[in-house]
Amino acid sequence: MKDTYTLYGWHLSYFTGKALCYLRYKRVPFVLRDVDMYTLLRRIRRKTGAVVMPVMVTPQGEWIQDSSVIIDHIEARFPDSLVLPDTPVQRFAASLLEAWGDEWWIPMAMHTRWSYPENYALFEHDAGSALLPFMPGFVQRMAVRKVAGRLRAMLHSVGVRPEQFAVMDAWMAQTLDQLDRHFAQQPFLLGAHPTVADFGLVGSLYGHQGRDPWPARELVAPRPHLRAWIDRMAQPQDGSLAASPLLADDRIAPTLEPVLRAIFAEFVPLLQGINAQVKALLPQLAPGRPLPRTLKDVEVPMGGGRFLRAAIPYTLWMAQRTLDLYRAMTPDEQAKVRDWLSALGGEALLALDIARLRRAGLRVIPESSAA
Ligand SMILES: N[C@@H](CCC(=O)N[C@@H](CS)C(=O)NCC(=O)O)C(=O)O
After folding, report:
1. To test ligand 1's pocket by mutation, which of 362, 363, 364 has the most ligand atoms within 8 angstroms of CB?
2. Residue with the nearest Cα to atom 13 of ligand 1?
3. How confident is the model at residue 1 (pLDDT cuts 50, 70, 90)?
4. Which atom of ligand 1 is nearest to the CA of 154?
5. Which domains does the chain show, CATH number per domain?
6. CA distances (Å), 150 to each of 84, 114, 146, in order?
7. How far apart, in whole angstroms, are the C-alpha atoms of residue 101 and residue 85?
8. How many angstroms does the Cα of residue 330 sit away from the middle of ligand 1?
9. Alpha carbons 285 and 91: distance in angstroms, whole number
10. What mean pLDDT, rounded, does the chain reach?
11. Atom of ligand 1 nearest to the CA of 53
12. Cβ neighbours of residue 97 closer than 8 Å, sequence gap 6 or more
């Protein structure tokens, strides 16, 4: 067991699903350990400064928090089936899709779980036995009620507000249809093996829409190609998958275009809105201080409607990762990315101009003000 990694998390958890599918695909020797109350409130808090999951512990005893940093860590040590494409457009698109899957989908995941009471029994069972494995059921249920209360308290902030349900439902129906059509043609988002794009998107779809009873039955089961993709992501049976190619010539499948256009029309305005608030705050921020976890509301397009959610500065750190990949490219590669972006209406992404950010748990610290 000396080379074994430990992933602390729950199947219920968005970002645990992402890290879990990734570690399985990479064939990394690891065990998934449930997070109990002591681990969540004491060990993880002490090691990472946040009450959060997933966290991965390396064979050397290092605690790594954040699914993207977990992926970075493993990619550097297991170079066999890399999940960031080599070619410029696919590389940039994969990273952008990861950020979108991680951040844009949070309201969808929270809505499909918490707006439908029938999902609670699974949450209560799984979270209860994970949190307090040796306690009687009624004590477990009390502990779960507390955790559920904490999560429900976040609903308004992430945009899960009754007056927005119709817009979210319409958006989800349309996007899930687009993804179902795409997966009817392609095994994964960019071709025949998964990339960070797939791991980002599977966060919401594995633990929430794909596993909670209401959305699994009402949203995912009617879309069999989407269901099959979630299952492929969760159980990558075939070790030869990594050798299967992405689309040739740095192409992106036309079936993904509607999704990408929506990202440029919706997610990029979200980034712009968050960035504007962060810029306005910078002059008042003491050096080395993290930005608040959430700021004021941002209003963005969503499908045919409008959507309000609180700005989360962390989201800019994910966008910074994508823009860093662009900055590291040769001028020729950058030109290819720019051409691709302008064909899909996405040039504004490159003009974002984010103040350099460092991550600290679930928060970010502007480097210009860092001590
Ligand atoms: N961006 C982080 C996010 C981790 C995260 O938000 N985890 C959720 C569970 S899926 C959590 O623990 N949230 C607690 C909180 O937001 O206070 C990652 O990629 O790992």
Report:
1. 362
2. 52
3. low
4. 16
5. 5-77 (3.40.30.10), 88-110+163-369 (no CATH), 116-159 (no CATH)
6. 35, 12, 6
7. 17
8. 34
9. 34
10. 96
11. 12
12. 189, 196, 197, 200, 201, 263
**Residues with C-beta less than 6 Å from any ligand 1 atom:** 13-15, 52-53, 66-68, 102, 362
How many A from CA of 73 to the centre of ligand 1?
18
- Residue with the smallest CA separation from ligand 1 atom 18 is 66
Distance 135 CA to ligand 1 centre (A): 26
List pLDDT tens digits, range 7-18.
999 999 999 999
Question: For the segment 220-233, what is each residue's pLDDT rounded down to a tens digit?
Answer: 999 999 999 999 99
Instruction: Calculate mean pLDDT across residues 122-146.
Output: 97
- Better-predicted residue by pLDDT, 369 or 75: 75
CB 302 within 8 A of CB 167: yes
Distance CA 206, CA 216 (A): 10
Output the pTM of the full model.
Answer: 0.97
